[in-house]
Amino acid sequence: MSEKPLTDSVHLVRGEQVRMPVEVRAATGITAQFLLPSGPARDTLAAAGLEPVTPVPGRIAATLGFMHYLDCDLGGYYEFLVALMCRQPGVRGSTGVFIHWLPVDQAFTCEAGQTIWGFPKEIAAIDVRTRGTRTRCEVRLEERSVIAVEFARGVPAPSTLGAMTLDAYTHRDGVLRRTPWTMRAGGTRMRPGGARVDLGDHPISDDLRRLGLPRRALFTNHIGELSMRFDDATPISSRT
To answer: Between vectors from CA 119 to CA 182 and to CA 204, what angle results, nearest 5°?
Structure first.
């Protein structure tokens, strides 16, 4: 069965037209990579019809990070990311990332992300502060701290890979969706470790604990120049 786009190439969000693909012309961000126990993540992914990618037996690759969108079709905003590396069972070449949680601090991008791609966006207070060589990002919901990550700056790293496209998987309203996500990064700085994770007392904090956080990061990646493109979502399967 051939895949068909979930929605048309023009979407109406809060009375405004959003044309596909959505372009991010300028952004910055910091990400941290982790290896988490695959068991809890397997349960989460199975509910969406996916399975974990385990580069080390019993461990799944996971990403925490935040983005500052400066020039984007959806406006300027902060975003925090929790993603798990995954694939569709039995489907060759389907490796991508499952977007587990994606809080943002602006209403328009929140609604667009939910309705166009099925992203698990919700409005949160996202505070980002840089002091010296360290940047701290804290996410709060309902005036309660969910997570805070402190990133240490690394050393300059070459950006020679050019544009990279991967599949972003989402599961919302019983529908598994796949979105092609293209990124081009420059001005990168990397270091081993370099991220401290503190969890709060919110139910989402408990879910992140269930996944195996906090844990020492493998490495962090500061991205000083980032552009992205998000194509239309495609439905993979529907579960009720």
So the answer is: 125
* Beta carbons within 8 Å of 110's beta carbon, 6+ residues apart: 104, 121, 122, 123
Assess contact for 188 and 217: CB atoms under 8 A. Answer: no
pLDDT 10s digits, 180-212: 999 999 999 999 999 999 999 999 999 999 999
Relative to beta strand 219-230, strand 22-37 is antiparallel
Confidence of residue 8 (pLDDT cuts 50, 70, 90): low
Residue 9, phi-psi category: left (phi > 0), alpha (psi -120 to 50), beta (remainder): alpha
pTM: 0.93
Nearest to 103 by CA among 136, 139, 70, 73: 139
